[in-house]
C-alpha cells in the first residue's frame, strides 16, 4: 500500500474537503482525487461519501484511517529517530572481558561510555578467554577482548596490543626453591598453577615451552582467577599472568611479579566480534572506546601495566 496515498487520505479526512486539502498540500485537486480513487480501487471499497458540503469518510474509510494513522506517524518519525540515535545512541552493549583485561580497563570502559553516551548501557561479563569465546559464538556477547584469538568463520578479530607476561611468585615461604631469574626455563623448576588448555594464556605458554624444548611442571589446573591467585599466595605453586591481573596482590605485598625476559613472552589482546551478529552504532562506539583506552594505556608506559604496541 502506497504510504503517500494514506497521507493524502488523512489530509482529506482532516478537512472534509478535496479542494481545501489540495490547497494545503499544494497539488491540483484532480490529481488528489485520482490518488484517492486509486487507493479506493486498491482497497476495493469506497472511502469517502461525496456531497454538496464536501466529503466524509465511509465506515470503511473510518476503519482504514484508524488503522493507518499510527503506522503513518511511526514511519514519518523514523528519520528523526535515526538522527536522535546518531546524536545520542541508546541501547545495551554486552562486552566479554578476560579477568586481566577487566582489571586493566573494565571500570574505565563503563565510566567513559556513560560520560560520552548517557543513553548507552554497557554490560561487562568476565571469564577466561576460552569461555568468553564460547559466549561470543553463542550470541550472548556483542564483542569481546580475548587473548591470542584467531580469526575464524564465526569470529572476526582486530589486534589491539600485546600484554607482557610475568612470572608470578608468592612472597611467603614455599616448600620449593624459587628461581633466581624469571626465565622461561625456570618454569620447569617450580610447580605451576595454570588455566586449562581451553584458554589463550595456557596455549601461549605451552607453545613457547615446546618451541624451547622445555617441559612445564603443571601441578594445578584452575579456571578461576581468584582461586589461581590464592594458590600462589599460599605458596603451593607459581604462575604466569599479565601484570594487571595481580595489581591488588602486588600492592598488598602477597605476590611478586618479574617480567619474563628470556625470551620475552607476550599474549596478544584481540578485539573479537561474531561474524553473523548485527553491528549496531552502539557496538561501533564501544569498539572505538576500547581501542582508545588501549592506545592510551600503551602510550602511558609509566603505569607499569606491561602493555605494549604490537609489532607490525
TrEMBL record:
Residue stretches making up the HTH lysR-type domain: 1-58
* Xref: InterPro entries: LysR_HTH_N, LysR_subst-bd, WH-like_DNA-bd_sf, WH_DNA-bd_sf
Q: Which domain of life is it from?
A: Bacteria
Q: Cross-referenced Gene3D superfamilies, in alphabetical order?
A: 3.40.190.290, Winged helix-like DNA-binding domain superfamily/Winged helix DNA-binding domain (1.10.10.10)
- Does the entry feature the keyword Transcription regulation, yes or no? yes
Alphabetized UniProt keyword annotations: Activator, DNA-binding, Transcription, Transcription regulation
Gene Ontology MF term list:
DNA binding; DNA-binding transcription factor activity
Cite a single GO BP annotation.
regulation of DNA-templated transcription initiation
Q: What Pfam family is a match, any one? A: LysR_substrate
Q: Does the keyword Repressor apply?
A: no
Q: Which family does it belong to?
A: Belongs to the LysR transcriptional regulatory family.
* Name the record gives this protein: Bacterial regulatory helix-turn-helix, lysR family protein
Its lineage reads:
Bacteria, Pseudomonadati, Pseudomonadota, Betaproteobacteria, Burkholderiales
Amino acid at each position: 500500500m502506497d504510504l503517500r496515498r494514506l497521507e493524502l487520505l488523512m489530509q482529506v479526512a482532516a478537512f472534509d474537503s478535496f479542494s481545501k486539502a489540495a490547497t494545503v498540500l499544494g497539488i491540483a485537486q484532480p490529481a488528489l482525487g485520482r490518488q484517492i480513487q486509486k487507493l479506493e480501487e486498491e482497497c476495493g471499497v469506497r472511502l469517502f461519501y461525496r456531497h454538496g458540503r464536501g466529503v466524509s469518510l465511509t465506515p470503511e474509510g473510518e476503519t482504514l484511517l484508524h488503522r493507518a494513522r499510527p503506522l503513518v506517524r511511526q514511519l514519518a518519525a523514523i528519520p528523526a529517530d535515526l538522527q536522535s540515535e546518531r546524536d545520542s545512541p541508546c541501547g545495551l552493549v554486552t562486552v566479554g572481558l578476560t579477568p586481566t583485561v577487566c582489571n586493566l580497563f573494565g571500570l574505565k570502559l563503563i565510566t567513559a561510555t556513560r560520560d560520552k553516551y548517557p543513553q548507552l548501557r554497557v554490560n561487562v561479563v568476565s571469564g577466561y578467554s576460552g569461555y568468553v569465546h564460547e559466549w561470543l559464538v553463542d550470541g550472548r556477547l556483542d564483542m569481546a577482548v580475548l587473548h591470542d584469538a584467531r580469526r575464524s568463520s564465526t569470529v572476526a578479530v582486530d589486534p589491539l596490543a600485546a600484554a607482557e607476561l610475568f612470572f608470578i611468585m608468592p612472597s611467603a615461604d614455599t616448600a620449593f626453591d624459587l628461581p633466581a631469574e624469571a626465565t622461561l626455563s625456570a618454569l620447569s623448576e617450580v610447580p605451576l598453577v595454570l588455566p586449562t588448555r581451553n584458554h589463550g594464556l595456557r596455549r601461549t605458554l605451552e607453545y613457547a615451552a615446546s618451541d624451547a624444548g622445555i617441559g612445564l611442571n603443571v601441578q594445578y589446573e584452575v579456571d578461576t582467577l581468584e582461586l589461581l591467585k590464592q594458590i600462589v599466595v599460599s605458596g603451593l605453586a607459581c604462575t604466569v599472568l599479565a601484570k594487571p591481573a595481580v595489581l591488588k596482590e602486588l600492592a598488598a605485598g602477597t605476590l611478586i611479579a618479574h617480567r619474563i625476559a628470556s625470551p620475552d613472552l607476550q599474549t596478544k589482546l584481540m578485539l573479537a566480534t561474531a561474524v553473523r551478529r548485527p553491528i549496531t552504532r552502539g557496538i561501533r562506539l564501544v569498539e572505538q572506546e576500547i581501542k582508545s583506552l588501549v592506545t592510551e594505556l600503551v602510550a602511558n608506559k609509566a603505569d607499569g601495566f606491561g602493555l605494549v604496541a604490537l609489532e607490525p
